[in-house]
């Protein structure tokens, strides 16, 4: 299969298979059947962070061209842009999936050195065993989330789910960061950083610190002392996306947050993000989320 044919799997792709979905919103999905995963038998690129917990049976699959097996009690951690292929299942199996959107990751995780090292550690060690008693915290979160999924929803149900998923995710990253900090893992991380990965790491750190204030490829290329052409090529090579896509995605998440939670006027928010005027700000927001800033604020308040 040619590289251009690889399908990208996002949260939206799961929504058509309602029969296998325990929970879904714009940022999260919990799926109870592998057969209903979109393009499950094809080579796919993850557009979200995917957790797959094997409760029974066995699953074999290739992750970034390396073969892994999941037995009962094993957890697969799939970073965004991970390539998954050649999936095979045992006759009797039970697997539950959870997907986290990249927008969610940007909101709760600040990209710093430790975060990047943890991501590289996950890339090198995508399968972890979590079925033992020393993973009680993980099991508590899992059971609480499943209990809230089947609970009668109330007006703050979505917010409760978001905080539970955020707590689970941060707890998981905290544990993995300790493993990534071990001497053996640190040596492995250093050996696996190539030029494109290094540039992506530094770009991700700058993007996280910027908070949506700058929205041009040239600005970030200059900050990292590369030409825009070389910078764009390296980012595309490292993660399969253009730097402008990542810049706009990050900026829009910060803007949406300010529109939803700030008491400032839209004009003041436009000035806060260094837009030349409110009209330009409005056009930018509408181009990326399909509605005006005022409309988004009204929907969020409703």
What does this structure look like?
It contains twelve helices and eleven strands. It has 302 residues and is an alpha+beta fold. It has a six-stranded antiparallel β-sheet. The chain has a five-stranded mixed β-sheet with strand order 1-4-9-6-7, with no helix packed on it.
Summarize the topology.
Elements: E1 7-9, E2 21-24, E3 28-31, E4 44-46, E5 48-56, E6 59-63, E7 66-70, E8 74-78, E9 83-89, E10 94-101, H1 102-108, H2 113-124, E11 127-129, H3 136-150, H4 157-180, H5 183-192, H6 195-210, H7 217-223, H8 228-239, H9 243-261, H10 266-272, H11 278-289, H12 293-301
Helix pairs in contact: 2-4, 2-5, 3-4, 6-8
């Amino acid at each position: 299969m040619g590289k251009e044919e690889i399908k990208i799997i996002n949260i939206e792709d799961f929504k058509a298979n309602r029969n296998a979905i325990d929970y879904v919103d714009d940022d999260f999905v919990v799926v109870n059947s592998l057969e209903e995963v979109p393009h499950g038998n094809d080579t796919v690129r993850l557009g979200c962070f995917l957790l797959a917990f094997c409760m029974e049976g066995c699953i074999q699959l290739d992750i970034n061209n390396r073969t892994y097996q999941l037995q009962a009690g094993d957890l697969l951690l799939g970073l965004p842009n991970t390539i998954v292929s050649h999936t095979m299942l045992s006759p009797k199996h039970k697997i539950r999936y959870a997907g986290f959107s990249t927008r969610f990751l940007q909101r709760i995780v600040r990209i710093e050195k430790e975060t990047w090292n943890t991501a590289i550690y996950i890339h090198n060690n995508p399968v972890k065993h979590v079925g033992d008693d020393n993973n009680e915290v993980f099991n508590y979160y899992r059971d609480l989330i499943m209990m809230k999924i089947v609970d009668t929803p109330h007006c703050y149900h979505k917010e409760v789910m978001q905080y539970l998923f955020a707590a689970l995710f941060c707890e998981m990253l905290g544990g993995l960061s300790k493993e990534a900090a071990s001497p053996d893992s640190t040596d492995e991380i250093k050996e696996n950083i190539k030029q494109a990965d290094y540039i992506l790491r530094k770009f991700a750190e700058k993007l996280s610190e910027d908070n949506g204030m700058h929205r041009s490829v040239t600005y970030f290329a200059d900050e990292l002392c590369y030409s825009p052409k070389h910078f764009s090529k390296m980012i595309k090579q490292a993660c399969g996306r253009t730097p402008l896509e990542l810049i706009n995605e990050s900026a829009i998440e910060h803007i949406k947050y300010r529109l939803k939670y700030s008491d400032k006027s839209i004009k003041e928010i436009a000035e806060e993000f260094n837009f030349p005027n409110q009209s330009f700000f409005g056009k930018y927001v509408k181009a990326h989320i399909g509605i005006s800033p005022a409309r988004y604020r009204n929907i969020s308040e409703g």
